[in-house]
């Protein structure tokens, strides 16, 4: 199977004022000798079958069968595919696997949140393995899976710990879909499998994973094709069948890709706004120097299919004395006028070495009230899985890159309500 292209992000040189907006991606994906079929589109699956000698006339039917076994039944090996002939199963097993990313750690929070640390192949033998995390957040009426799109992130949002990581590479579609497969394996969320038990799991609906958010590590619109292909597989009605209304892609504001995301992905959109003035947003989300707030909001206005039932979520991280004044709240409401919007206030999750603090609870409430009175539902995202450090912006980096002392400090902070 061909090697995925080198990370397609053009390295951006120092801006005129010498502020470096983005890091250059360092690593690329090298496919294993026996590739996994997970993450291939139907067309790519047909090609893979063709390469093993399946005749063109048979391919469509075989693709349908494979799709069913892989994505509807969760098959982990070809022997399980009883409707496929023994000969073909043997041929497939010779050339391919159904491997998911390797799970190196699983943590279960007292509130039911689960976090998996996944190891992905690295480019050079012997180098530090690439790792990402995937988090499952259960609620009574839904189960949300938070997926990563990159190892690290080339952007450097000043409040985000992922941005401090040096290593960056794009995930392949298989590695993105693979996170869903791993989560469903671990939760027993396949037909006939033994379901996970424990506190906090959804009690309604027949599925443990009903929603997906692309809010883990990485900027999904900087890995556009892979994210698009993965979401299209996740939404496929003959397979994983997670409606695009229940899939949310979160972006820091890659303006030129937003229209394309609407056309080719069509999921729900979340935008990490975090500030109402360009000078502050330049600091918090340096990509704002390239795509300022007015351009970003214009792209949002043009996002296809917006209505009161289908709104853009604006994420706003609450940073004490930085962006949390009542004047900011009023400006936020004015700024979003005319855009079908939801506002999601996120308590800042501190990490060792950060210069920011989370806003005081009373201030978050005051802010939220102004937003609410302006007609927006403004849920404050309750921190979940604090005991396992499952918070946004702390994925993986929290468990891997810190010294033991820092880890303890972080854990202590995360446990403080
Ligand atoms: N790169 C994308 C998606 C991943 S980040 C984006 O930036 O939108 C998902 C969300 O977590 C974003 O809104 C991001 O701003 C927020 N986030 C990052 N670090 C955080 C932190 N330390 N505390 C709270 N939210 C954080
Ligand atoms: Fe990257 Fe998003 Fe973190 Fe910014 S907030 S550094 S875009 S992951």
Ordered list of secondary-structure elements with their pairings:
Elements: H1 42-51, H2 56-72, H3 86-95, E1 102-108, E2 114-120, E3 130-139, E4 142-146, E5 150-151, E6 169-170, H4 173-187, E7 211-214, H5 224-235, E8 247-251, H6 255-264, E9 268-272, H7 278-284, H8 293-301, E10 312-318, H9 326-335, E11 341-347, H10 361-373, H11 397-400, H12 404-415
Parallel strand pairs: 4-7, 7-8, 8-9, 9-10, 10-11
Antiparallel strand pairs: 1-2, 2-3, 3-4, 5-6
Helix pairs in contact: 1-2, 4-5, 6-8, 9-10
The structure holds S-adenosyl-L-homocysteine (SAH) and iron/sulfur cluster.
Features:
single chain, 417 residues, alpha/beta, 9-stranded mixed beta sheet, two-stranded antiparallel sheet, 12 helices, 15% strand, globular, disordered C terminus, binds S-adenosyl-L-homocysteine, binds iron/sulfur cluster
Question: How would you describe the overall organization of this protein?
Answer:
The chain has helices spanning 42-51, 56-72, 86-95, 173-187, 224-235, 255-264, 278-284, 293-301, 326-335, 361-373, 397-400, 404-415, and strands at residues 102-108, 114-120, 130-139, 142-146, 150-151, 169-170, 211-214, 247-251, 268-272, 312-318, 341-347. Helix 1 crosses helix 2 (56-72) and helix 4 (173-187) runs parallel beside helix 5 (224-235). The protein is of the alpha/beta class and 417 residues long. The protein is built from twelve helices and eleven strands. Mean pLDDT is 86; it is low at 1-18 and 395-417. Helix 9 links the parallel strand 10 (312-318) and strand 11 (341-347). Helices cover 31% and strands 15% of the residues. The strands form two sheets. Strands 1-2-3-4-7-8-9-10-11 form a nine-stranded mixed beta sheet, with helices on one face.
């Amino acid at each position: 199977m061909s090697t995925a292209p080198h990370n397609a992000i053009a390295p951006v040189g120092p801006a005129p004022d010498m502020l470096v907006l983005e890091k250059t991606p360092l690593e690329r994906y090298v496919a294993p000798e026996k590739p996994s079929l997970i993450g291939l589109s139907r067309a790519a699956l047909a090609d893979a079958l063709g390469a093993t000698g399946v005749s063109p006339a048979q391919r469509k039917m075989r693709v349908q069968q494979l799709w069913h076994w892989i994505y509807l039944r969760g098959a982990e090996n070809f022997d399980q595919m009883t409707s496929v002939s023994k000969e073909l199963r043997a041929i497939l097993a010779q050339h391919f696997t159904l491997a998911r990313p390797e799970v190196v750690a699983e943590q279960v929070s007292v509130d039911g949140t689960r976090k998996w640390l996944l190891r992905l192949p690295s480019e050079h033998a012997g180098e530090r393995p690439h790792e990402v995390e995937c988090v499952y957040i259960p609620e009574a009426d839904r189960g949300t899976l938070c997926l990563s799109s990159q190892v690290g992130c080339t952007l450097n949002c000043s409040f985000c710990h992922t941005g401090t990581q040096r290593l960056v590479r794009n995930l392949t579609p298989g590695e993105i879909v693979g996170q869903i497969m791993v989560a469903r394996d671990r939760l027993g969320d396949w037909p006939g499998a033994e379901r996970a038990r424990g506190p906090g799991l959804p009690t309604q609906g027949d599925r443990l994973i009903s929603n997906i958010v692309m809010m883990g590590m990485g900027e999904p619109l900087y890995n556009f094709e892979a994210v698009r292909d993965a979401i299209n597989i996740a939404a496929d009605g003959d397979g994983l069948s997670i409606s695009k209304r229940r899939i949310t892609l979160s972006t820091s504001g890659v303006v030129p890709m937003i229209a394309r995301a609407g056309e080719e992905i069509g999921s729900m959109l979340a935008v990490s706004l975090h500030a109402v003035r360009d000078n502050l947003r330049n600091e918090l989300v340096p990509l704002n120097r390239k795509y300022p707030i007015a351009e970003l909001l214009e792209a949002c206005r043009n996002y296809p299919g917006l209505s009161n039932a289908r709104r853009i979520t604006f994420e706003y991280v609450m940073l004490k004395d930085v962006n949390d004044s009542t004047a900011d709240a009023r400006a936020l409401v004015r700024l979003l006028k005319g855009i079908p919007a939801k506002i999601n206030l996120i308590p800042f999750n501190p990490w060792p070495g950060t210069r920011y603090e989370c806003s005081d609870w009373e201030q978050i409430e005051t802010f939220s009230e102004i937003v609410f009175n302006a007609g927006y539902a403004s849920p404050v995202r309750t921190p979940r899985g604090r005991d396992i450090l499952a918070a946004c912006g702390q994925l993986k980096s929290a468990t891997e890159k810190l010294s033991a002392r820092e880890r303890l400090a972080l854990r202590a902070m995360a446990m403080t309500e």
